[in-house]
Amino acid sequence: MRRITRALAVTAALAGSVLAGQTGTAAAATPRAPVVFVHGYLGSGVIWEPAKSAFEKAGYDKSELFTYSYDFNVSNRTTAQGLADFVDKVKRDTGAKKVDIVNHSMGGMVTMWYIKQLGGTANVGRVASLAGAHHGTKVSALCTVMSPSCKEMTPGSEFLGSLTAGDETPGPVGYRTWYSPCDEIINPFTSTVLSGAVNTFVLCEEHLAFLVDGPLLAQVAAFTKGA
Prior knowledge:
This protein is of the alpha/beta class. Helices cover 39% and strands 14% of the residues. The protein contains seven helices and six strands; from the N terminus they run αβαβαβαβααββα. Helix 2 (49-57) links the parallel strand 1 and strand 2 (65-68). The chain is globular, with a radius of gyration of 22 Å. The relative contact order is 0.14.
């Protein structure tokens, strides 16, 4: 009887240790950050539907994916403040400590203004930029008359001077860009490159093709997941 009792006690102790270990592992697991998609000039939230599908295939839930839509003709300063408010709301709604941001084209400028000028480094874990206009584009000259944001996107503008001054990839944020010589909108195409980021050269990708390229979007999802 003593042997049986002793055996039961050992079994219970081992089971308790295993459960404790499982509980500790679960407690230590870090929740995945929600993703905020930021479109560019002439864009809207709907352009991210292919990307969201790619992220869902990579294991994300719909509830983890958010699109920030804005008036692309107003100043990027205004839009960046709106992004700051949107990120705060996503954090409140999800309980997340940080978000990851995926942007395209002028959305790169919006994202970087938020990060560098509005304290975004405390709220963002990773930034993935697809053809981001981080240093502007000569093509913006076609719309400067009617759009403050286009004027700011012109190489040499006061806005870009402030945006690109100092560290281009500040804080503990992970940065990665994708850029291509076939991009007919970002001119020069190297405008996307950020010093200190992982800059990914894509052999030939047109500007809007970045938004629908399945294998490339899978790379982006893997990056935000930390893979």
